[in-house]
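USER:
Try writing one entry.

ASSISTANT:
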Amino acid sequence: MANLSRSVSNPYTNETVTFLKTTEETKGEYLLFRTDLPPNNGIFLHYHTELTETFEGISGNLEVKIDGKTIILKPGEKLDIPRNQVHQFYNPSNEFVSFTAEIRPAGTFESFVRCGYGLDTDGRSFYMPFLKQYLPKNILLLGTLFKMGQFYVPSLPLFLQKALFGALAKLAHWTGSDRSLEKYYKGSVDKEAVAPEPLPKTP
């Protein structure tokens, strides 16, 4: 079984995620990771159907939108995001913002994160200006990722998204494309590995 890094990152933006407690370490009860988010970066509106999230600010101010309301998450503050709650987060500043995210239950969310950053690192993703996000070049893998993260957008009916992404995930499995993701998440984190120092808080 391969050793997995405790940190993953996007080489284009320098966004970094450090796993503080992995799925394996908590036996699937929860996943805890730190995100160092670069300036003018974030994630578009979405929701999760099978998990809850709790954000806690570490440094800088994180802009979080929940059902149309904007909340500024400051260091030391916590914010719970229930299942099916439409939300997004963004760093509007010119410095890095750091926060932790606790996912309950862990499910396959760690695999979702690792695969996304793995595709970025290997040059297997492309930038979508409309979403301000990197997506897999192999569109079939989009279905696999959405299934891993139970990740949906509010602009389309849920049943339609499940049908669409479910079909893409099945095609990815049928063609063997999804097996190309296994190297990103199959393995264990070295129990002796120490989380690296946070990124400098400047662009």
Observations:
- The two ends are 36 Å apart (CA to CA).
- The chain is about 20% helix and 35% strand.
